[in-house]
Amino acid sequence: MNGKRSGMMLAETIIALLVTTLILGILQQSLKIVKNVPDNLNANQIRWHMTNEYIQNQFQGEFLKDKKSKKLIFDDKNKIGGAHILEFYQNMLRVRSEEGGHVPLITGLKSGSFKVDGDVIVIRIVNKKNQISEMYVTNDHQSFEK
User: Fold this and answer.
1) How far apart are CA 85 and CA 46, in angstroms?
2) Taking the model in full, what pTM does it have?
3) Is 88 exposed, middle or buried (0-12, 13-18, 19+ CB in 10 A)?
4) What is the spatial distance between Cα 142 and Cα 140, in angstroms, rounded to a whole number?
5) pLDDT, tens digit (0-9, with 9 covering 90-100), for 75-134
6) Which residues on neighbouring strands pair with residue 64, listed in sequence order?
């Protein structure tokens, strides 16, 4: 034999395995980050603000007929139909009328509650990840309560 070798030496094989393992480790960490991207998007914040604006506009100028920790019943400000109801139902915050039908505002909730203090409604929400959020709805310097 003349000293030329064909094929890989043991040291070259070990280095190739080390590089492959390193690349797989980096790829695994990258996939974990990509998996969590939907949780970190601003979509939830945008939905939250849109819900706050909807509630603020829907109940502006209305008075409470009845309040409970899970349900608020408002007089219809237009005096056209029955009352509007804002409530926590199953795993959602929804708006509905006394006649029926509902609009889900926020879904995937663990729990929620309302607190009324004069011209402010505090909506406290706990999501499935046990994250607590509060939303404040005001009534332009007049009390929600008659």
Assistant:
1) 23
2) 0.65
3) buried
4) 6
5) 876 666 678 889 999 999 999 988 878 889 988 889 999 998 878 889 999 988 888 889
6) 74
As a residue count, the chain comes to: 146
Tens digits of residue pLDDT in 135-146: 888 876 566 665
**What pLDDT was estimated at residue 19?**
95
Instruction: Give the Cβ contact number of residue 125 at 10 Å.
Output: 19
Identify the CA nearest to 121 among candidates 103, 142, 101, 102: 142
Q: Which of 115, 119, 122, 120 is nearest to 143 (CA)?
A: 119
Residue keyed to tokens 């019943």: 73
Computed over every residue of the chain, the mean pLDDT equals 83
Nearest-angstrom CA–CA distance, 6 and 117: 84
**Pairing outcome for strands 120-127 and 132-138:** antiparallel
Q: Please provide residue 20's backbone torsions phi and psi, each rounded to the nearest 5 degrees.
A: -60, -45
